[in-house]
Amino acid sequence: MRVLVVVKANPKSEAGAMPSAEAVAEMGKYNDRLIAAGLMVDAAGLHPSAKGKRVDFRAGEKAIVTDGPFAETKELIGGYWVWQVKDMAEAEGWAVQAPMEDGAQLELRPFFEPEDFAGIATPELIEQEKGWREAALAKAPKAGS
User: What is the pLDDT of residues 30-56, one digit of tens each?
Assistant: First the structure.
């Protein structure tokens, strides 16, 4: 199963503060462990919301685009990982080992997988989606690369 691990934004990340060299090195070691374990599909930190935009959709109306920054940091994302794990317990086991600063928060959310749409999408569409996912996973970082 694939899991999105959301790194919640905080006032420091929203101010654009970069992590220390030590924190970057620790995160690099952690990411190396994730890759060596065959779990990491993708990961990235995000610029503050001041550099972002939101697009709101309302039925029958034109989409509304709002420039950042966005006020409520508890609702913002500062970064993410995408992991391929056997279950949520494995994801939790890795998440608690993340070298996060005091007060940081991670949120783990499983992805819908193509099989979850059986009975809603056609079998052909489900197979097409599986193909897209397999191609993306094939391009994911591998240990030793």
Answer: 999 999 999 999 999 999 999 999 999
**56 in a structural domain:** yes
| 144 Cβ contact partners less than 8 Å away, ≥ 6 residues apart | none
Tell me the three-class secondary structure of 15-62, residue by residue: CCCCCCHHHHHHHHHHHHHHHHCCCEEEEEECCCHHHCEEEECCCCCC
Q: What is the pTM of this model?
A: 0.85
Model confidence pLDDT, tens digit, residues 81-128: 999 999 999 999 999 999 999 989 999 999 998 888 889 999 999 899
Which amino acid, one-letter code, is at 34? L
Q: What CATH code is carried by the domain that includes residue 104?
A: 3.30.70.1060
Tokens at residue 135, please? 């191609």
Domain that holds residue 72: 2-111
Whether 101 is covered by a domain: the verdict is: yes
Residue 129 burial (CB < 10 Å; 0-12/13-18/19+)?
middle
Sign for the pseudo-dihedral over CA of 15, 16, 22, 25: positive
For residue 37, tell me if it sits in a domain.
yes
Q: Which two tokens stand for residue 61?
A: 């109306």
Domain assignment present for 20: yes
